[in-house]
Amino acid sequence: MKISTDKNKISEILDRGVENIYPNRRFLEKRLQEGKQLTLYVGVDPTGPDLHIGHGIFLRKMRQFQDLGHKLILLIGDFTGMIGDPTDKSSTRVRLTREQVLKNAKNYQKQASKLIDFDSKNKAEIRFNSEWLAKLTFEEIVELSSHFTVQQMLTRDMFEKRMDEEKPIYLHEFMYPLMQGYDCVAMDVDGELGGNDQMFNMLAGRTLMKAINKKEKFVLTTKLLVDPTGKKMGKSEGNMIKLGDSSDDMFGKVMSWPDELIVSGFELITNIEIKEIDLIEKELAGGTNPRDLKARLARCLVESFFNESEAQSASDRFDQLFKEHTTPEDIAEYKMKSGSNIVDVLVDSKLAKSKSDARRLIEGKGVKLDGEVVVDGGQSVEPGQLLQKGKRGFVRLV
Question: What pLDDT shows up at residue 227?
Fold first, then answer.
């Protein structure tokens, strides 16, 4: 495999969207300039059925390495997913069964393939960490544990917060970074990528690599896509864009973002050149309508997951629905039962997940019937009416 040492591409890898590089930037730059194939990985715990745009940030970075000719591994944490990563958690995660994590991971490769290559000669590899973690003996776990101290674990923000609030910290949560750290030892990789919130866990791997494999592992952490309050745009916050979302959903969700995310969005989730992003930042500061720039961001995102034609179609449909205040032409029909009320229809038509969810939508003025906001959960409905949830959910009652 011919390895590219293109200086501009290496600079793009080391600078764009990067928060930290360990042991330092120069170390990784030198490795990339050597022209030897490196093996690097990113680990994802299947705690839910979808990869999301937060994963997409470091998967894009992985693709940059792959385009230079380096070897990629997408590691599915089917074992660590059962432990539960305590990072950023104010309480202990609900533990998952092996059946649950495998079910969640079912579509991960398909979703990740929108950003990294699983088909070419230098195709990315899929691995599962139960391959080695499930085989560790208690003696081996004790030996691994000897490389860390309780004080190191307790310095983590979420553990300090739990202690202050007198919330429990379970021993298995201390074991999580130990297990994740052992992944790189078992695969004997050259480096690891991940979001900056995973820095502690990834650096645990550096510690074990030095102690066991006598090898320096580089760690590259990417910036996080956060809202103005500092919260991640991800499944924990309920505002994620899933990599399996439709083009309309992707477009609409970006358009709902606060204006403060426009510049970082262009940097982290598109392939637009940095010099062009600098111009966008100047346009925004100069008074350009943020909506226009956000629409451009949404088109760029959709195009990267679908194609240019679908991105334009999603943009046109969004404008038709909101900018021009019209309803879509192609509306699904729902065959209602006689005597149904609004809550029943919301649930049965899949516009709401449950009756309690339907009532919350109504209380939040998120439901309309023939364009009028619904205020009564017991309101009856009739065939021929147009039911709307939020800005994008429509069904015609028949």
Answer: 79
The structural architecture, per CATH, of the domain 7-222 is 3-Layer(aba) Sandwich (3.40)
pTM across the whole model: 0.80
Give CA–CA dist 265/120, Å, rounded. Answer: 29
Q: Does 1.10.240.10 match the CATH number of domain 247-323? A: yes
The alpha carbon torsion through 238, 111, 257, 91 (nearest 10 deg) reads: 30
DSSP category for residue 370: T
Report residue 4 CA to chain centroid gap.
Answer: 29
Pairs from 1-9 (Cβ < 8 Å, separation ≥ 24):
1/37, 1/69, 1/121, 1/122, 2/69, 3/35, 3/36, 3/37, 3/68, 3/69, 3/70, 4/67, 4/68, 4/69, 5/32, 5/33, 5/34, 5/35, 5/68, 6/68, 9/64, 9/67, 9/68
pLDDT-derived band at 325 (thresholds 50, 70, 90) equals low
Lowest mean pLDDT among 11-20, 303-312, 382-391: 382-391
Here the tokens at position 291 are: 């909506």
Backbone angles phi, psi at 213, to 5 degrees: -95, 0
Please name the amino acid found at residue 27: F
CB atoms within 10 A of CB 215: 14
The one-character DSSP state at 198 is: G
* Predicted confidence (pLDDT) per residue in 156-176, tens digit: 888 888 888 889 988 888 899
H helices of the chain, in order, are: 7-15, 25-33, 53-68, 80-83, 98-104, 108-112, 130-133, 138-145, 150-154, 157-164, 171-187, 199-208, 247-255, 262-269, 274-285, 290-305, 308-318, 342-348, 355-363
Nearest residue to 203 via CA among 45, 23, 13: 23
Instruction: Enter the DSSP assignment of 1.
Output: -
pLDDT at 18: 97
The CATH fold of domain 332-397: 3.10.290
The domain locations on the chain are: 7-222, 247-323, 332-397
